[in-house]
Amino acid sequence: MAIPDWPESERPREKLIKNGVSSLSDTELLAIFLRTGMVGKSAVDLARDLLKQFGSLTNLFAANQHAFCQLPGIGIAKYTQLQAVLEMARRALGDELKNGDIMNSPDLVRNYLRLTLQNKAHEVFIAIFLDAKNCTIATEELFKGTLTQTSVYPREVVKRALFHNAAAVIFAHNHPSGVTEPSHADKILTQSLKQTLALIEVKVLDHFIVGNGTTMSFAENGLI
Predict the structure, then answer these.
(1) How do residues 156-169 score in pLDDT, each as one tens digit?
(2) pLDDT at position 168
């Protein structure tokens, strides 16, 4: 049965308008994004198929074009729409990071980092440079690596911190394996960056590892 033939109280759009966006399930939210179904399947059916295939919205968001377009009725147009939505979300979160003390918004930082790093096929190392009030000055991708590792050079990090006249910095990198457990090399690198930046009076506030929909904070785990 097509969605317009459903009882009004069960239609995703009408439910959203009446009860608010938080009242919708993942399937219903995705159905609104998809807008249309295909012959024999409604948008809700397609949304349910997508979530069954990928297991979660997080995995769906991280899917590449080939994987996303495997299901019948899901093509390049919907993939590009999804990428546009994700990029708008990243930019909106990035704008929020520039307003006020970033340390007062830990969930905002985590959400931004997840959207920025979790779908990367290779390791990427980024830095969020902060002023004396912990407000964001700039976010930069500093290094890219192979499938399993990246090389980070403290000297280059110092140069960028001086360029931005930063007072503090938050680091983050992804683990394409999806596991957020820090390696021995991750721990050594973090301490090296902390000691090197201390020489120019720049504080390292945290280092996050982003995995498959999760993040690990060095600060919260007493590793920094």
Answers:
(1) 999 999 999 999 99
(2) 97
**Is the CB of residue 169 less than 8 Å from the CB of residue 161?**
yes
Angle between helices 154-163 and 184-198 (to 10 degrees): 40
For helices 43-54 and 26-34, what crossing angle results, to 10°?
Answer: 120
Average of pLDDT values for 30-35? 89
When pLDDT is averaged across residues 165-181 and rounded to a whole number, the result is 93
Q: Which amino acid is at 168?
A: A
CA angle 86, 94, 25 (to 5 degrees): 40
DSSP 130-189: E-TTS-EEEEEEEEE--SS-----HHHHHHHHHHTT-SEEEEEEE-TTS--PPPHHHHHH
Q: Is the dihedral of CA 80, 72, 32, 35 positive or negative?
A: positive
Q: Is the pLDDT of residue 99 over 90?
A: no
Q: CA separation (Å) from 21 to 74, 94, 161, 210?
A: 24, 22, 40, 27
Burial class (CB in 10 A: 0-12, 13-18, 19+), 3: middle
Can you tell me whether residue 215 is helix, strand or coil?
strand
Q: Using a pLDDT cut of 90, give the percent of the chain over it.
A: 44
Q: Are 32 and 82 in contact (CB under 8 A)?
A: no
Q: Which two tokens stand for residue 87?
A: 């990029």
Q: Given pLDDT bands bounded at 50, 70 and 90, which one contains residue 57?
A: confident
